[in-house]
Amino acid sequence: MQNTVIIDNYFDGFLYSQMDCEEIPMAGTAGAYDRKNFFFYCFYVSVCYNWSEVNTKDKASYRNDILNKLGLSLVPYKINNSKELLTFIKQSVDKSMPLFLLASYSKLYYTPNYLAGETKTHGVIINGYDEEKSIVILTETMPFNNSPLHLNSNPLYTMYLKENILEELWVDIMGFFKQTEDPNLDIIYRVEKTSKPLVSSYYELVNDFLNNYGFRVDKLILFIQSYNENRKDILNYIDYYRKEFYGSLQAFFRCLEYAFADIDKEDQDLADFISFKERYLKARSEILFALHLSAIRCMVFDENRINELSSQVDFMNKELNKYILCLQKKVTVKTSEKFINFALGKCAVADSEMKYGEKLIKASQALNGKCSNWMNDMWISDNKEKIHWFIVDLAESKKIHKIVIVHSGDQHKTIDFELYGSNDNLDWTLLSETVGNKEVETTHEIEPSMYRYIKLYITNPGAYDLNARICEFEVWGSDE
To answer: Is 342 among the domain residues?
Structure first.
């Protein structure tokens, strides 16, 4: 009987001319947990290739950095022999965990690169087996160097190997790795779910890019500036550089288009962005062509030529950044329009409520949608203990997307706190944890989930005293 971890073929994915033959299957393993992960992973690879200070030569490290954002980890396992490999494959598939194997093309007889005598490393997904037929199921990507950029083909396809053939391949691959002192000797990787994803939507993906990457550094500019020293590399590896600085951007722009999909198709800014995308890609392609042609002609660049090309790249990046910021703002507005503040006007309870004269500064006051008068529009606890809690009852389970908290200002801002969700007010799920907060308003995006009760658990209420102060507590979600 066949047992398989489902890996999509990604007919709408990316090809070898756009993404490295290790990264496409790596993205496929991430997609086994959520189809969108394939695109998220490719987006981050494009960012790492072009605008990140991450060292992409340290592949295990930067791949794990990306996977961690998706709530996943790439875990290496040492395999002592081919029989142990088969056992490990079956155990992993039974746990619904795909495997990722690195192999040299010089040992993969079924690829065209094998006949060409290439020794480059290639990635293979192992995601199934058939015990009765002694078959192992692989998911592969076919590297055709001469494929058109928009070839209508699936990036991944399914392949069946007899167990004894896979064992022979393993022995040959590891023998080659031993000769070349490759760090992947006797190693197979398993992609495992280890935490909640930090990014679970295209909107969050673009926000993460703007907040943590942006266009602060461009590796194409660094490439231009080192042209005179690297002319030989440009001649020998131009296909590799075109894939990094041009081909991979198909993944970047595809995800941007998905993120902006809810914007009105007649929107002029969106139309301008689509038009600019083509100009951006064309400019990068022409710069790479100019570098390659100059290297063929053994031309040396003076400082003026280097500055000219670098300025072109920098200008296009600034324009692209403007478009992304503009369109992301429109998505933010539309997203807010679709969401409902389920906490507005609902009931809340707390560990304590401060008494000011004859008036209690009640918990439910933080749910009235106002922040104008602290006596009527805020919850303040007593100051007997440092730890405080605040629970909102939404009356019924709702699909929650984010929680917004308006804290008191100055030294009264809540410093350390946690957010929990529950459907019975007994069993609680941690949604978010904040340490060292310095903001008056904090937004906590969560994986969309159904909850009736939301709890704020405060472990450090502020720098001034032990009173917790919350001006407004909002629970945003969709009415599904």
So the answer is: no
